[in-house]
Prior knowledge:
The protein is an alpha/beta fold. It has two domains: 2-122, no CATH class; 138-259, Rossmann fold. The chain has 14 helices and eight strands. It has helices at residues 8-12, 18-28, 57-68, 79-94, 96-106, 119-127, 129-134, 157-160, 170-177, 196-199, 201-217, 228-236, 253-259, 263-284, and strands at residues 2-5, 33-35, 74-76, 116-118, 144-147, 181-182, 222-225, 249-251. It has a four-stranded parallel beta sheet with strand order 2-1-3-4, with helices on both faces. Strand 7 (222-225), helix 12 and strand 8 (249-251) form a beta-alpha-beta unit. Helix 2 packs across helix 13.
Amino acid sequence: MLGYYPGCTVRAQKEDGFEQESLAILAALGIEAKELKEWECCGAVYPLAQDEYVGLLASVRALVQTEEEQQEGLLTLCSACYHVLKRVNYRMKNDEEAQKRVGNYLETEYQGQTKVLHLMEVLRDYVGMKKLKEMVTTPLEGEKIASYYGCLFLRPQKEINLVDGENPQLMEEIVRTLGAETVTYPYSTDCCGSYHTCQEEGVSRQMSLKLVESAKRAGATQMITACPLCKYNLEKCQEKIEETDRLPINYMTVPIVEAMGGMEALERKGEAYAHSAENSSQSTA
């Protein structure tokens, strides 16, 4: 079983369905994820000051709690949360001074041994594309999907190490498994403008619009991402465009849910798996 770290943004935007869809997908695939008993905001941005340790505490608490609850790893959905948790974990594994300072403050020892996982990583390493393909009941024939990674999944490569930072293909692999066509365009790893949207909306809009227009020129029928802020920026930049000309921006879960028969079908599969696992547990007790 995996520990589950929802994060503030995903939990605050429940109407988007990202969390519900993600957990339903995992349940249907036989992956159990249990929310941590207590968690707090990771800080949203990784603290870059090398002599500042307070910014590490929230993430370390979550990582330690994952161990205490005897979970196999810590799952998160938001790429910002994933970025922060992964980098904090890397530092705690490799920085003895951080281990000492944080350990003194939290009155515990932690050396970066918890695995930090993103939904895509779980699909790749715990489920596998073969099993995912077996669950597809409605192949997405005719869909041309542009995958948008953004910054946080990829950089810095040494610390994140999820995919090839120069030529990531994990989202494309998932898209092909669903029966859709992948769209190659030049800016899938460029920044969307990130938090500039708060104070320099024009800057963010220009950066995001470049991404969307590039994907449209390449023939995309939709873009997918795993970052709530990226999704917001990619949608926001199209506000002045006629609605019929806007490129749909979806979480990566949307095409997965569609290809697997919809939420009701997923929930039935999840319930069936849970029932089967319960019966198996009782028979071996």
